[in-house]
Design a protein that fits this description.
56 residues; 4 helices; 66% helix; globular
């Protein structure tokens, strides 16, 4: 899924998604829930994946 499509489906600006991906910004819990809903996964799964990659 592109950043643009994820942004449209989640209501999060594409440039903010880019900043999250590059580690320049941290999402709020609200943003995590929005992104998870758009991706069709549980918010805990996103956090778990971030932990596995050493991002948190």
């Amino acid at each position: 899924m592109s950043q643009e499509q994820l942004g449209l489906e989640s209501g999060v600006q594409r440039n903010f998604i880019s900043l999250i991906e590059t580690g320049q910004n941290q999402p709020t819990i609200t943003t995590i829930f929005k992104l998870a809903a758009a991706l069709g996964v549980k918010p805990s799964k996103l956090v778990q994946e971030a932990e596995k990659q050493g991002l948190v």
